[in-house]
UniProtKB/TrEMBL annotation:
Any Gene Ontology biological process: carbohydrate metabolic process
Keyword Nucleotidyltransferase among UniProt keywords: no
TM region positions: 36-56
UniProt name for this protein: CBM2 domain-containing protein
UniProt cross-references to InterPro entries, sorted A to Z: CBD2, CBM2/CBM3_carb-bd_dom_sf, CBM2_carb-bd_dom_sf
Assigned keywords, A-Z: Membrane, Transmembrane, Transmembrane helix
Ranges for domain CBM2: 103-199
Pfam families in the record: CBM_2 (PF00553)
Keyword Transmembrane helix in annotation: yes
Region (Disordered): 1-26, 67-99
Compositionally biased intervals (Low complexity): 87-99
Gene3D superfamilies reported in the protein's UniProt record: 2.60.40.290
Length: 202
């Protein structure tokens, strides 16, 4: 009983692992296994990679810092199409692209009547050529034209259509007058057409 029994360690006890290479960056481990004659080539490749990475980073930074270009301001006058503002039937300028007439039209009230008024239309030729014939149409807002003088009447009423008489040419610098009688409120004629074009008001 005085003897001490020596206990042996079991065979399956875990043995300490042999010390391996110290951990480090993977590229260092790869470089250590590169043969010495290839070392300059590997160093050159690494240097090129660093330069490319730095350039790419700079380009990304510039793209993010670049402010978007300001939108080109639109022309306040709208698209340029080579035409003037067209005169509406109420009296705006005719389009140059459609061919502006040398004829002008002027309306005025000659006198008032108990039921309406008597108006005068003056057609003038400001061009250098004689106008052999013409046709005029207009409307008096809220009124009805009952009679027309000084031209061949095609239609009266809410809308008036008249045209030149036979042989009633209009030479350069000349003017002619057409009279009409309207029943209703005194108002300037609108929707004026001369030779199928918007009237150019004098």
């Amino acid at each position: 009983m005085g003897r001490h029994t020596r206990l042996e360690a079991p065979e399956d006890e875990a043995q300490p692992m042999p010390a391996g290479p110290s951990p480090g960056p993977r590229w260092k481990q790869l470089v250590e296994h590169v043969p010495f004659p290839l070392m300059p080539l590997v160093a050159l490749m690494l240097a090129v990679g660093v330069i490319v990475l730095a350039y790419s980073t700079q380009q990304i930074s510039l793209n993010f810092n670049k402010s978007p270009q300001a939108a080109t301001p639109q022309d306040a006058n709208g698209p340029s199409d080579g035409t003037m503002s067209q005169r509406s039937p109420g009296g705006s300028h005719a389009s140059r692209g459609a061919g502006r007439s040398d004829l002008t039209v002027a309306f005025r009230v000659a006198s008032r009547t108990s039921a309406g008024f008597r108006g005068i239309v003056t057609i003038s030729n400001h061009g250098s050529r004689t106008v052999p014939k013409w046709a005029l149409a207009f409307r008096v807002p809220g009124g009805t034209v009952r009679a027309v003088g000084g031209a061949t009447v095609v239609k009266t009423g809410r809308v008036v259509h008249v045209r030149s008489r036979a042989g009633q040419a209009l030479p350069p610098g000349a003017s002619l007058r057409v009279t009409y009688t309207s029943v209703g409120p005194v108002a300037a004629p609108v929707d004026c057409l001369l030779n199928r074009e918007p009237c150019v008001r004098a």
